[in-house]
Specification:
The chain contains eight helices and 16 strands. It is α/β, with parallel strands linked by helices and 305 residues long. The chain binds flavin mononucleotide.
Length: 305
């Protein structure tokens, strides 16, 4: 049986809906020996900022029940080093490359990053990371406030025609409201969820296991929260959703698609098995065949309630 796994994120076409999440796949070159990268639906690169960042002090990761905490703090080589050292490899892959950007000084830094990336033909889309819990400003995260989200997305929208994705935070009361703001300001898609704020304590030392104290929780433990949030956002907006949070296998990816995600991103699972994303892709094909469904698009938002 012939199946069609292609999906659209606004004007961006993906051969299949399986992507890899920012910060869990480096700049893709690190994974070249493990898999055929060209089979992925898209790659989202580790978030970059205008200037290089060293990130937060160690220890920056620890395991938790059904997941992990991280407080990397957006360590990255900065825009110019990224363009010089990392982008050439990505350009050769001929699959959509989505560049994740964050700003230490909004909105000027976002505008500088986006206007530079806008000139690079191989950049398929830009993801605005306004939801990293490890680099909070004094007023909290942009993605925690619908008005700040609107302002940033609208400013960036003015200067680029590239597909714009806004990455949302689960650390809010109503993620639907923030998604709606992003849509109204011109975002082509939303991606969710970034990590949940969490802490883990070494009881012998009575110290946090992560040097910075509070960190971001990811992995299967957060999946039910993420699935619920995608469902909430699906009911609120018309733009496509990229779902993520604890996706480990084809069934967990399908949960997100059925509640409304047009594409899915694999994060923490890449650290356990770097081939997870391609195994999920095979599993999705098998599911379609088993259920006699020709187009994966038929499954998007097909939840029976
Ligand atoms: C070690 C680590 C680093 C991350 N770095 C970033 C990042 O740079 N930018 C970003 O938008 N999200 C980052 N994330 C969040 C993931 O992209 C994803 O949203 C989150 O982990 C939920 O998916 P998962 O449970 O499948 O990991 C990071 C997550 C982890 C575990």
């Amino acid at each position: 049986m012939k199946t069609n796994l292609s999906v659209e994120l606004g004007k961006l076409k993906l051969n299949n809906p399986v992507m890899v999440a920012s910060g869990t796949f480096g700049y893709a070159e690190e994974f070249r020996d493990f898999m055929d990268l060209k089979k992925l639906g898209a790659i989202v690169t580790k978030t970059i900022t205008l200037k290089p960042r060293k990130g937060n002090p160690s220890p920056r990761t620890c395991e938790t029940t059904g997941g992990m905490l991280n407080s990397i703090g957006l360590e990255n080589p900065g825009l110019e080093n990224f363009i010089k050292d990392k982008l050439p490899f990505l350009k050769k892959l001929s699959i959509p490359i989505i560049i994740s950007v964050a700003s230490e000084e909004e909105p000027e830094e976002f505008l500088e990053l986006v206007s530079r990336l806008n000139k690079i033909a191989e950049v398929a889309a830009i993801e605005l990371n306004i939801s990293c819990p490890n680099v909070q400003g004094k007023d909290g995260l942009i993605a925690q406030d619908p008005e700040s989200t609107y302002r940033i997305v609208q400013e960036v929208r003015k200067i680029t025609d590239k597909t714009l994705i806004t990455k949302l935070s689960p650390n809010v009361t109503s993620i639907g409201k923030v998604a709606k703001s992003a849509e109204e300001a011109g975002s082509d898609a939303v991606s969710l969820i970034n990590t949940l704020s969490g802490m883990s304590i070494d009881v012998q030392r009575r110290k946090p296991k992560i040097a910075s104290g509070v960190a971001g929780l990811s992995g299967p433990a957060i999946r039910p929260v993420a699935v619920r949030m995608v469902w909430e956002v699906f009911k609120k907006v018309k733009i496509p959703i990229i779902g993520m949070g604890g996706i480990m296998d084809a069934d967990s990816a399908l949960e997100f698609i059925i509640v409304g995600a047009s594409a899915v991103s694999v994060g923490t699972a890449n650290f356990i098995n770097p081939k997870t994303s391609l195994e999920i892709l095979s599993g999705l094909k098998e599911y379609l065949i088993r259920n006699k469904i020709t187009e994966i698009k038929e499954l998007i938002g097909s939840l029976k309630v």
